[in-house]
Amino acid sequence: MIWAALGILIVIIYLTVKITSGRSRTEEKSSLPQGNVSVFMDSSGKIDVIPFKLNKFKQGKASHYPLSLKKPYTPEGIGELIRKGLDLSENEKSLTSRELMKSLGFYDWKEYSKGRKSVSVTCTEQEVALNSTIRRKDGSYAFRVRGFERVLPVEISNSELGSEVLKMMNCSV
After folding, report:
1. Domains annotated on the chain, with CATH
2. N or C end of the chain: smaller count of CB under 10 Å?
3. What pTM was estimated for this model as a whole?
4. How far apart are CA 122 and CA 130, in angstroms?
5. Of the candidates 54, 69, 64, which has an alpha carbon nearest to the alpha carbon of residue 120?
C-alpha cells in the first residue's frame, strides 16, 4: 500500500515538473530610457548599436562607442543591447567621426555603411519610434517613410524590442 502511494506521488511530481518546465517564462516589461540609437547589421548578421545625441539642428552625433553583438544571438539579446545603447545616448560624451570610425575599424562612413542595413530607434517618455532606412550612394541613410514607420509602447520587454527591430531590418535597403 505504501509503495503504491509512493509510486503515485512520484508520477504526480514527474508530470507536474514536465508540464511546468514546458511553459516559457514571460519576460518582464520595463520602461526604456529616453534616447536615440542607430542599429546596423552587416551581411554576416553582426549587429552594431551606435548611441547618439541630436544637436540643435537635429543632426545626430555619436555619444558613446558602439556596442556590438555577433551571431548567434536572440531577440532578447538584441533588445538588451539597444536598451543599454539608449541609456548611453544621453551622456555628455561626444565622439568625433574619426574616433567612431576607428572604434568600428573603418576609415570613413561610406566604407563602414557599405552592405549594411540600418534601423533608427528613438525613445521618448511616451513612445518608441522605429524607422527602417535606405542607404544612399554617399554612404548616408535616409528614412524609408516620412514620420514614424512603427511606434511601440515605452513599456516593452527586451525580446519584443529585439524582434521588432529585426522585422524592421528586413525592410531596410
Report:
1. 30-171 (3.40.1590.10)
2. N
3. 0.81
4. 7
5. 54
